Amino acid sequence: MRSLIIFTLVGVGAQLVDGALGMAFGVTASTLLVLSGVASAQASAAVHLAEVGTTFASGISHWKFKNIDWGLVLRLGVPGAVGAFLGATVLSSLSTEDAAPVMAAILLAIGVYVLLRFSLKNPPAVKVGTTKHGAKFLAPLGLFGGFIDASGGGGWGPVTTSTLLSQGKTAPRTVIGSVSASEFLVAVSASVGFLIGLREEFFDNLPVVLGLAIGGVIAAPFAAWLVSRVSPALLGTAVGGVIVLTNSQKLVKYFGITSPWSTLIYATIVVAWASFVYLAWKLSKAPAFVPNALEAETVDDAR
């Protein structure tokens, strides 16, 4: 019962982050699960099995609101499913001792990406008259995103959503809806990969899966409230820093780094984190760029 409560709280925390940022459920949940003592492969397997249900529900919701480009879903999701199966197979084949630093390193890299992504700049506006993303761009992105997602316990959203938004070729709501729908294929494929790789151990994760699912359902309405109260730049930077710090501790411990060097590493991370939080705060206070208003001013000046 105690374990179920812990995993439910993990699900609540991960859903609050994901609901407010539109990404990072897997990264946050995996980091918190590993921190609570769950083995790396088991943590990723539990997260992806829980995401089979959450991504299906999310995809249906986005479909009802017409936020999905099915061509984008297939061109991104099918390669993503292949990458996820490979990532799950690789992580399952590693010993517990070897898997821990691999997963920590991947989560650390994703944490740095999220930290920089939300502290340095806002996503660009959608460009008018640009062409849609082609298969040559989406297939490698999906393959890489799926592999990182399964082998690192998360990362599909930070890798694919951020990349597509940065291109400015597709409306943000269509990007988020299509990536969410395609993540269902990734979650199913990763779960199958973990089922084959972990075998009997896969079913030991059911309490974890149940806790994550319950926590996610409980937190969903609060996440909707949070997104209207907290700046995504500040929240994303805060979450990125937590992911970096917690996974750095695991790598420092794995490589046997002791004081004073370990203290210096942690101090450097905390100082850098605080600096990025300050940058995110300034970014959240900056006036939003409104293209239509600027265009109107230009027309008026011309007159």
From TrEMBL:
InterPro entries: TM_pro_TauE-like, TSUP/Inactive_protease-like. Belongs to the 4-toluene sulfonate uptake permease (TSUP) (TC 2.A.102) family. The keyword Nucleus does not apply. The chain crosses the membrane at residues 72-93, 99-116, 137-156, 176-196, 208-227, 264-281. The lineage of its organism: Bacteria, Bacillati, Actinomycetota, Actinomycetes, Mycobacteriales. It is a multi-pass membrane protein. GO terms for cellular component: plasma membrane. Keywords: Cell membrane, Membrane, Transmembrane, Transmembrane helix. It is found in: Cell membrane; Membrane. This is Probable membrane transporter protein. The keyword Transmembrane helix applies. PANTHER family: MEMBRANE TRANSPORTER PROTEIN MJ0441-RELATED (PTHR43701), MEMBRANE TRANSPORTER PROTEIN YTNM-RELATED (PTHR43701:SF12).
